[in-house]
Design goal:
This protein has a five-stranded antiparallel sheet with strand order 3-2-1-4-5. A hairpin with a 2-residue loop joins β2 and β3. The two termini are 16 Å apart. It is α+β, with helices and mostly antiparallel strands and 83 residues long. It contains two helices and five strands.
């Protein structure tokens, strides 16, 4: 599981960030609450992550705080709720 990414924030949009970690670009889906706290593009950044792997998909969700990530994981445990 990918727990966090430390690298350079390449670009950001309200629901997605691209992180450059040692030359590898990671697409990370983020909530608006995390988007507001991201630094400017080109700045160093750490994003906490939840790695969602299914047989037909592999998605990385990112959060700027542990509380946000913990809430996301709690919601994922509810039957019928997905990312």
């Amino acid at each position: 599981m990918i727990t966090f990414l430390d690298g350079i924030l390449e670009s950001k949009q309200p629901t997605m960030a691209i992180m450059n970690v040692a030359g590898v670009g990671y697409e990370v889906h983020i909530p608006l609450s995390s988007f507001d706290r991201l630094p400017a593009a080109g700045a160093p950044c750490r994003i906490l992550t939840y790695d969602n792997v299914r047989e037909d998909d592999h998605l990385l969700f990112g959060f700027m705080s542990e509380d946000e990530r913990r809430m996301f994981i709690m919601l994922m445990s509810v039957s019928g709720i997905g990312p």
